[in-house]
Amino acid sequence: MDYDIAVIGGGPAGVSAAITAASKGRKVVLFEAHGFSPRLRSVAQITDYMGIPDISGTALMDIFVNHLKQMEVDIIEAKIISLREVGEGFMLGTPHGEYSADSVVLATGISRSTLFPGEKEFLGKGVSYCAVVDADKYKGKSVAAIATVPDALEEVEYLADQCEHVFFFPLYTGFVPPKKKNITVVLDKPTEITGTDKVTGLRAGDDFYSVKAAFVFRASDPLNSFLPGLEIRGRSIYVDDQAQTNIEGVFAGGDCTGQPWQVNRAAGQGQKAALSAIRYLARRDEGIDY
């Protein structure tokens, strides 16, 4: 299906962007794979959100999502694994299908996790962020699965269905041991992904694990993992004062554009990104340079 605006991320910035764009009559799709801002939901008390002086993060996020669901926005509960320019628009890929949009708003939040040594170097050479897409490349082989979020267990078990063996590194509390016999749980934290031209192993504690791939599952993937060429400054997406990135037609707002990481700022920036995307589409349709 074709959309005017695709929003990637279902936190305060993404929901704000989607509501704003839909209220202006644009056809909008929002992609959210992790239950609408688990980080905000973990906050016990918020006292500085205007008009709501005392509320939990979960309750505030539920208010946002309930508003979103009253708008004409298509919600796709899937991870974006690819984003590429096609003609004057974009094609967005999930593990289960592709969607096209004329513009994109990035509201991905930011991963607080530091990249593992070797992760960046071997991305696409054995390091992957999606089991559904890449698991079949490693049939009959041993792989590593590193997870910082509980909902990654489904992808870990999918890996076990496709691969000979999975070394599972759960980096979160309260994990439930998988039942599949070809999954080995390792409680040491990985220290390095190793290889030459591709992944050949992983180190954790004093041990070395011979694997052909390392799958890393986080709430937020590295910002440019699905959009090569996106300009990153430090840990943030670079945007101008109109929320436009260095890629024409791609806008960004919220935590992914830098500090302060606050709900008020994220919601406002999401709105700005959506309005800029709407203006971009209107001017493009009229043949005016943006």
From TrEMBL:
* InterPro entries in alphabetical order: FAD/NAD-bd_sf, FAD/NAD-binding_dom, Ferredoxin-NADP_redctase_2
Q: Which domain of life is it from?
A: Bacteria
Q: SUPFAM superfamilies under this entry?
A: FAD/NAD(P)-binding domain
Keywords, in A-Z order? Flavoprotein, Oxidoreductase
Q: Which GO terms describe its molecular function?
A: oxidoreductase activity
Instruction: Tell me where in this chain the FAD/NAD(P)-binding domain is found.
Output: 3-142, 180-270
A Pfam family this chain is assigned to: Pyr_redox_2
Its name, as the record gives it, is: Pyridine nucleotide-disulfide oxidoreductase
The protein's organism comes out as Phascolarctobacterium succinatutens YIT 12067
